[in-house]
Amino acid sequence: MSSIDEYSEAVCKLAEDFNLVVKVHPNTYTEEPERMAILTGLGIKNVDDPFINNIGLISIADWVLADYGGSAFAAIYADTNVLLLNLANPADDELMGEQSLDLQLRQWLPSIDVNQATNIKSILLDDDLWKQKTEIYQQLRDYLFFPTSGNAGALAAAELKRLLL
Questions:
Q1: In the CATH scheme, what is the homologous superfamily, with its name and number, of domain 4-164?
Q2: How far apart are CA 39 and CA 46, in angstroms?
């Protein structure tokens, strides 16, 4: 699933007011020249290295727009505002399914449908919306990620020691 076909024009308009960095999925970059052509045709520059570690980009971003996959989870991990871009019938995708965490995230985080794409800028600038996320993000981090804050090395060493003994 890719949101490029449905959302690229609305995202392109954000470049008028924001520093826009687009990082597509590596498979899109290498296997979907027609989608890359859409971005190029709209003047959207993509990150040159399709295999760059997203967390660095995400941690310095003000917002992340994500459809499905790892970017939304990386944004939660990095405590970066994320707006989820919905596509039609995502549960029907062979890589998804009704129990997908990608779909469940939409219960807690802001998301929009294609018919709302022209509202992306106003949603991003809605300070009240993003103030509400702090507690939700912490709850999601606690649920989704092993608690490593400040002691990841010690936890990894303890786990390795446990496994090796």
A1: Glycogen Phosphorylase B; (3.40.50.2000)
A2: 8
